[in-house]
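Journal club side-thread
Mid-discussion, someone asked how the predicted structure for our own chain would compare to the paper's figures. Pasting it here so we can look after the session.
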Amino acid sequence: MDLLLLLVILMFMSTFFLLLIGLITSKSDRVRSRLKKLTIVKNKEQVSVSLDEEELRKSFFERMLKPVIQKIASGFSNGKNQGASAYQDKLQTQLIMAGNPGNLQPNEFMVLQFLISLVLLFIVLMLCLFIQVNPPILILVFALSGFAFGFVAPKFWLSKQVTKRKSLISKSLPNTLDLLQVSMEAGLGFDLSLSKVVEKTKGPLAMEFKKALEEILMGKSRREALKDIGKRTGVEDLQLFINNIIQAEHFGVGIARVIQIQSEQLKTLRRQRTEEQAMKVPVKMLFPLIFFIFPTILLIVLGPVMLKIMHELGATTIKFRF
């Protein structure tokens, strides 16, 4: 048991020193650039911001953890095989659909998974050694379970973020299309109407429209910028709307009328989906009723009766014996 504890401590101490050496031996250009003062533009006025102020604006993850993850990921990004590349492409798609949380790259996310797994492995081993779990094979099972959970948990969280973002975009799409239609009927063009939508609304859909407008200003065609929105979000309703806009622009149909029809259809779909979810509620409530509520009701209703029957049977048995 003491040998196992020593091996675990040595492993984590070696990992810590390798990370420390990697950070110290980083490029000097990066150090010099961080020592310089930064400049930002705010409200069309140039304001000088010191390095400390700029660093304090960042989160703890961006200031402390992300540089370490980037340093480790740069060491593993060179020798990747075809299977790893396919996995990273799939992971890149999920990160984009999730809204690029933490601006993480696929290799950085994989490093984060590995680090979380190591931390949970260390915690589980320390707990097992502290409470003296026996036999040793049970310690190995707990440690591997903690390592597997640490690897799977970030993927589960990423999938939840993708689902949450898609839901937010789907819910806000009909109201956004109404605002877009009103802007176009007021005489604005499609691009200016999109800029009004970005100005008046918030959320992931507004951010996607803002990014598309920036790409259009940089020279990308409107068709490609709109198609990229559908690829980045993965929302079927939004992809259908974008395809209708592209076809209307191609055939010369009024875009405002297309947006109005699309908005009405999306509102109908949203109402139908809400009704579908409401119809599923009785089925979902059946299992809690059977396993949690009905036993409690039976215990409350039949409990006194059963106690009385048991008492009467006990008294009868005693009389019969005497």
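Post-session note: The CA atoms of residues 287 and 293 lie 9 Å apart.
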